[in-house]
Amino acid sequence: MLTPFDDYPVHQTALPVAHPATGDPNQYDRFFFNGYRDDLYFGVAMGLYPNRGVIDAAFSVVHDGVQRSVFASGRIPADRTQTRIGPLVIEILEPLGRTRVRCDAPDLGIDADVVFHPRTVAVEEPRQTIHDGSRLMMDVTRLTQWGAWDGSIRAGDGQIPIERSAVLGTKDRSWGIRPIGQPAPAAPSPRPQQIFFLWAPINFAERATHFLVFERDDGTRWVESAAVVPVLAGDGAPTWDPDGGGVEHLPGGDHAVRWEPGLRRAQGARIALHHPGRDAETIDLEPTITFRMRGIGYMHPEWAHGTWRGEAHVGAEEHPVEALDTLDPWNIHVQQVVRARSSTGEEGLGVLEQLVFGPHPSGFAGFLDGAGRG
Prior knowledge:
374 residues, mainly beta, AttH-like fold, 14-stranded antiparallel beta sheet
């Protein structure tokens, strides 16, 4: 089946673009954005699942103690340039550059029109691959890009001006294979049901820092990444560079999370970035707002990614933030807005994402025990 995108020289196989190279039902291609300041967080997700025939998207806002979300799901468009479903639209104004995001759902509590402006080049993270026995469970490429936002958001009865000088954020594009939607029938897996994931992209005035780890239940790592990324010279500067764009990839880093007693979210944290030939740089992270990733579909009990809900289905939810402080599985995956203070003297703002199921040496003995209760 041919689509307009086949007129571009982007093919990776002998198939038209609409046909995935793999028949794995968990093949996906996703947009993720966040925006934040001390008292505000908003998140955006849109995923396409060609082997499931589904597209879904969500826009969520945490402000004034309430987390609100709008969700949409439907049949995947044949034309991959049509990145819209229901009231949610992602418009690529410049590839790896400006992106416009709209959520036209005032009747459901959110009316947003915002534009992401890049502050850095896009950085390719290490490929994330893991097997469950002989079965490929996850094989993902992801890019991260730091930026700032302008536009406006109405959430509930409140109008929130989004000013580029004050609202920072991150763009995350990922594609490949990872568990989504309903699992295929199979024998029970002998693999331990455990995941430990931290992701900390931080915006400083003159640079950005990157830290990522996946760890097993004994604390050993199967993926890690640390980097320092310079801020672009101006709006017209290139946002990608085959020679690396000045990105300094570091040997690695360490983390020390102070977990909130009885929960699986941070009370605070310190990360250490290892710079060759000198002492490690430490960055202390102080959370100001917690966002539950269920707000954009991650492990949501009803709006889980890749789930067929009909030709065009739209919905919403609203929760007081404190009501989400639970150990329910759909409330464990979080991003926190964090004030960052580096041992270099710099202060910045970013997020600390946390996804922790099962045991881990940092403070958990069971599958869903809270910190200090193991």
